[in-house]
Amino acid sequence: MSPDAPRTAPRPAHPAADEVRRRLEHARTTRLAQLKALDETGSSSGDHLLSHQKDAIKRILAEIDAAFARVHDGTYGICLGCSKPVPPERLEILPHTRHCVACQHRAA
Ligand SMILES: [Zn+2]
């Protein structure tokens, strides 16, 4: 239960900041397009589902912004739960994530 990670400075594990930024940029563009598409489809049916979907996308957009900030201060790719580097293949699928798989499950 106790996070017994020693209080060391976060290691600057830079998975090529440029590449990360490009990935995040792409993720943001995709989400914004989805949001726009939902706006345009909207109003006809299933308002409830629609607003739910929009909320989910907005939440991810906020995560993406936060990830940009972490790229900026060099903490990107470090799990907030255990301070270990998040596996690169996970970052490829979920560039905005801030937890490794184990911590994600614990935090969910
Ligand atoms: Zn972790």
UniProtKB/TrEMBL annotation:
Domain Zinc finger DksA/TraR C4-type, chain residue ranges per copy: 74-106
Region (Disordered): 1-20
Keyword tRNA processing assigned: no
Pfam families in alphabetical order: zf-dskA_traR
Keyword list, A-Z: Metal-binding, Zinc, Zinc-finger
Composition bias, Low complexity: 1-15
dksA C4-type zinc-finger residues: 79-103
InterPro entries, sorted: Znf_DskA_TraR
PANTHER family: GENERAL STRESS PROTEIN 16O (PTHR33823:SF4), RNA POLYMERASE-BINDING TRANSCRIPTION FACTOR DKSA-RELATED (PTHR33823)
Name of the featured protein: TraR/DksA C4-type zinc finger protein
Species per Swiss-Prot/TrEMBL record: Streptomyces glaucus
